[in-house]
Amino acid sequence: MEFKVFDLGLVDFKKAWEFQRTIFQDVKNGLLESGLILCQHYPVITLGRTANKKNILVSEQELKMRGITISKIERGGDVTYHGPGQLMAYPIFNLNYLKKDIHLFLRQLEGITITLLSDFEIKASRYQGLTGVWVGKEKIASIGIAIRNWITFYGLSINIKKDDLDNFRFIRPCGMDIEMTSLETVLNRDIKINCLKDGLIHKFKEAVV
Amino acid sequence: MTKVILPGLGEGIEKATVSYWYFKAGDKINEKDDLVELTTDKATFNLPSPCTGILSEVLLREGDTVGVGEVLAIIEEE
């Protein structure tokens, strides 16, 4: 399967959502086989379909003061945070070209992240029964997807920058007491987000051949 | 009368949770309209309506669990 890559850079969550919808329509209408959107977001807390608002630990007012917005979305999962220190990947993949298997696709996204991190000599793994990617007992990547007509949207966020982890303290990620980590935290050095993009695209290509 | 049944969703997936109904009982619905959203693990997906007609019965509520092959709703075809 072929996919076209769109790098939006640092973009508002809602704008990226609108862009996903456009690409989704193109894929649905057969104008594009599939698409892969890469970006970073301004600080935002997103609530999935099964989200419990109690998992946001501070008032909306306090979040506003800190420049963090809230968005309700139709992906699976509970509460999470996205910010400029994460690399987001939204695969708008037509699973009719691959395998029509929802959980297999989730496991593929985990596999893509694990092999990407192994290029940095980070030993990451799956955690039985919990979607996402972990380094030891800390989570380094989160996954939540939506599927319509067997075309996927939403996707994968990988924590890269250490200083962006702070904002996770305002939520209980996925409704659980999870400690988050980042590439910079694990490697103890500065990592430029742009340095990961080509590697990530390559891993996606390997996974969908 | 057409039964809306939860289809196979992939290996090892035997059930899903009803997360959102786009229509309520009594509504007119067209073939391929998104009828209901379901959730499994960290994924949501939609079931489209298999035909055009009136959604006569909604058998499960949001939050209920449904197994593969089970009936979610009934549509009276036009």
Structure, described:
- The complex is a heterodimer of chains A (209) and B (78).
- Chain A is an alpha+beta fold.
- In chain A, the strands form 2 sheets. Chain A has a 7-stranded mixed beta sheet.
- Chain A is 28% helix and 30% strand.
- Chain A is globular and about 45 Å long.
- Chain A has 5 helices and 10 strands, in the order βαββαβββαββββαα.
- With 78 residues, chain B is mainly beta.
- The radius of gyration of chain B is 12 Å and the shape is globular.
- Strand 9 of chain A pairs parallel with strand 5 (43-48) of chain B.
Helix content of chain B: under 10%
Strand adjacency order, main sheet of chain A: 1-2-6-10-9-8-7
Find the CATH superfamily of chain B: RNA polymerase II/Efflux pump adaptor protein, barrel-sandwich hybrid domain
The CATH superfamily name of chain A is Bira Bifunctional Protein, Domain 2
Shape of chain A: globular
Averaged pLDDT of chain B: 93
Assembly type = heterodimer
Largest interface comes to:
A-B, 24 and 19 residues
User: Terminal Cα separation of chain A, in Å?
Assistant: 6 Å
Query: In the CATH scheme, what's the topology name of chain A?
Result: BirA Bifunctional Protein, domain 2
